[in-house]
User: What shape does this take?
Amino acid sequence: MEILLEGVKLVRDILQAEPFDGYRGEIVSPDVDMQSDEQLLEHIRETAATIYHPTGTCKMGDDEMAVVDERLAVHGVDRLRVVDASIMPTITSGNTDAPTTMIAEKAADHILSA
Assistant: This one.
């Protein structure tokens, strides 16, 4: 929430800069009257969404930032795997459905061979 709040404030500041004077229209959202952090946070809670399928939150690898190993097993936790788009390092340029299905197929192979 802190990062989103900082982002809203930054965008507001940028769009008020002089180079945008000839392009700026009426402020639509968040309402110009919303100035306090509490008001902006409420607006964020009510309106924030993603049009992308989130990926990359459970890094695969063997370094200290990695959550899962190459067999999708969670480091330090027995019998738990992460089998979804979160192991992808970045979002694919296309829909995440096919790569996620491949991840699931590979995980099934690992589980069956264990």
Notes: Residues 107 and 113 are 10 Å apart (CA to CA). The helical segments are 2-15, 37-47, 97-113. The chain has a mean pLDDT of 91. DSSP finds three helices and no strands in the chain.
